Amino acid sequence: MYKFAINRPITILMAVMALIIFGLKSYTSMPLALFPNVDFPIVTIKTVYPGADAKTVESKITDKIEEAVSGINGIDKLDSTSYEGLSYVIVRFDLKIDINEAANDVRDKIGGVILPENALAPLVQKISTAGEAISVFVVSKTGDMSALMQLVDEKIKPKLQRIPNVGDVDIDGYQDREIRILVDPYLLNKYKISAIELQNVIGNENFKASSGKSINDKQELIIKFHGDAKDIESLANIEIKPGLRLKDVAKVFDGLSDVESYSSYNGQVGVMLNIMKISGTNVIGIIKEAKQLLPELKTLAGDDYQINLIKDQSDKIIHSVDQVKFDLVFGAILAIVIVFIFLRNLTATIVSALAIPTSIIGTFAIIDYMGYDLNKLTLIGLTLAIGIFIDDAIVVIENISKKMESGMEAFQATYEGVHEIAFSLLAISAMLLAVFIPVAFMSGLVGKFFNAFAMTVASGIVLSYFVAIMFIPTIGARVLRHKETKFHAKTEPLFQALDNGYVRILKPLIRFKYITVLVTFGFLILSSQIFTNVGMDFVPAEDNSEFQITAKAEVGTSIGEMKNRMKPIMDAIKDDDMIDYYTLSIAYTTANESHKALVYVKLKSIEQRGLGQAEIIIKYRKAFKSIQSMALAVEKIPPINTGGSNAPVQIVITGDNLEKLSEISQQVSQMLGTFGVLGIFPSKVT
C-alpha cells in the first residue's frame, strides 16, 4: 500500500485534493447546531369527550386507550391525565424506536378501541423534541383582536411555514374566527321554539352541496347549490318560521372562539408563533431566513401591528461553536509549534503538519456522509484527535529521518522507515478505535448524545492512519533531506541536558522499583478518592442570559384565574432593569392545560446586568417562595429537550388512593424543604 503511494505521487495528491474538496463542501453545507441531534420518540393521544367529568373520562376513555397501547413493543413510560371532557395520554418509547413506526403502532392499536358515541376520534400526534428555532410575537396596537387573528392565520403563519426546513408553526394565544348566535330564551319560549329546532333550522338553511351535472357535446359542468349565508346580515335574516327571522330571537355577530391559550410579550397581549425545525436540519439557516423575512412581515402587517423576533438562539449557537473552532485551530497551531521545537527541522515540521488539515477536513466529509451535523461535540472530537493526527505523522517522519541519518537514499529510507512502523501504527489505531467505537454504541441518552463524538474521533483515527502511511511518505520521500540546521546545532546542548536529566531521574526509580510501584498505587488510590468528590453534570453550566418560570395551579383553574395568579410574578419581572424582555404563555402545552403557565425571561448581556444567570435565578426563587397559590419552579432552560421534566431529581409516589397520595406528597415536600431543596414542583399523573 505505502509502496504504491510513494511510487504514484500524482494519484495520491489527486486523492488528497478530492478528499479536501469534498471535506470543504461538507463543512460549508453541514447543519450547524449546539449539540448532536437527539430526537426522543414521544407519541400523544388526545381524546375529547364533551360534557364528561374527569372520572368518567378516565374510566370510559383513558383506561381503554392505556390498555390498548400498553402492549406495544418498546414502551419506556406511559403517562395519562384525565380532565373534564379531555383525555391526554403520553407514550414515551425507548430511544432506539423509530418515531414514525411508533406512531403507526399507536394508531393501529387505538383504532380498535370502542369509545362512547359522543367522544371524538382520538388525535395521535408525534411530539418533536427538535425544539424551537425562533419565535415571532405579533401585537395589535389598536387592540382589534379579530383583525390580529386574521392577520396571523392568513398572512404571517403561511409565510413562516414556507421557510425551508420548518416542520411546524405552533401558535400560542390564537383564537379562531367564530360566528356567534346569542339566543334569548324568553323569546324562544314566547314563539314556542326549542333550541334544538332553532339549531336544525339554521343548519338546513345554511349549507351548500352538489346538485348534479350538466353534460353536452363540448363540456361537462358541475352544478352546485349555494344555500350558505354570505355575510352576518344574511345569516341573521334566515327565516325560522313564517314571519319570524333569526335576528328576532337572537343576536348574531362576528366574534372569536373561546380562549384556549394566552400569550403576552412584556405585558402586551398578542399571538406567539413558535417556529419548529425539522429534526436534523440547520437551525441557523431557519433563523437567518426568519430574520430576512421580518421586514416583509412588518410591511404586510402595516403600522397597526408590532412584530418581534424572540427566543433567537443563533447567537448562542454560533458563539459556542466558534469557541470550539478557535480551540481547534489554536490546538493545531500549538501542536505544530511543539513539533518544530522538538524536531528542529522546518521541512519535517511542515510535512508532519500537513496531516492535521488533511485529516480534519477529510473527517468532515466522512461525518457528513454518515449524517452528522456540525456541533460542539463533533468539533471537540476533532480537537481531541489533533494529537493523534500529528502523532502518526511524526512517527513516520522520525523513522524516515533516522534511516536517512544512517546513509540511506531518500526513497529507500522512506520504504524502510514506513515498513518498520506501519504495523505498529495499525496496532495503535486499532487500540484507539477499540476505545472510542464502543462509546458510539452505548445505550440510552448518553449513547445517543456521544454517538457523534465517538464516530467523529473514530473517523479521524482511520483517516489519520492512511494519511500517515500514504500521503506523508509520498511528500517526505521528495522533500526530506538529512541536514542539520543552525537552530538544531544551537539547541542540541539543551536537549542533551534534558536527556541526561531524565536518565538521572529514571535510575533511582528503577533501583527502588518496589517503592516506585507502591507510590504509584498510592497516587492512584488518592486520585480515586478525589474523583468521588468532584461534581458531575451531563452538560456544563453556561450563562445563556435566559431562564424560565413554570407555574402550575390545581386542575380546573381557568385562564383568567391563572392570569390573576401570575400578576405578582409579572409585576416583579417587569421592573427589573436586568431583564431585556419576557413572555407569558398560559395553556401552552399540547393538551391546552389552562392550569399551567410558562414565563420565558431574556436577560440583558452579562456586561449590562452584572449578576450572573445562576445568581438571578436564585434571587427569584427566594422572591417567589412566599407564593402558595401555585407550584412554581424558577430554572435555567435545559440545553437538551428530552420531552419530559427538567428537574434533576424526580420522586415518584404511586398508589390507588389519590387523597392518601396527596397527603404523602405534601409530607415529602415538607421534608425536602427542611433539607434546603428549592423549586419543589408536584405533578399528579394518573
TrEMBL record:
Question: Per its UniProt entry, which superkingdom is the organism in?
Answer: Bacteria
GO terms for cellular component: plasma membrane
Gene3D superfamilies listed in its UniProt record:
Multidrug efflux transporter AcrB pore domain, Multidrug efflux transporter AcrB pore domain like, Multidrug efflux transporter AcrB TolC docking domain, DN and DC subdomains, Multidrug efflux transporter AcrB transmembrane domain
Recorded GO molecular functions are: xenobiotic transmembrane transporter activity
Q: What are the alphabetically sorted keywords of the record?
A: Membrane, Transmembrane, Transmembrane helix
The answer to whether the entry has keyword Magnesium is no
Q: Which PANTHER family match?
A: PTHR32063, SWARMING MOTILITY PROTEIN SWRC (PTHR32063:SF0)
What is this protein's record name? Acriflavin resistance protein
Organism of derivation: Paraglaciecola chathamensis
Give the classification, highest ranks.
Answer: Bacteria, Pseudomonadati, Pseudomonadota, Gammaproteobacteria, Alteromonadales
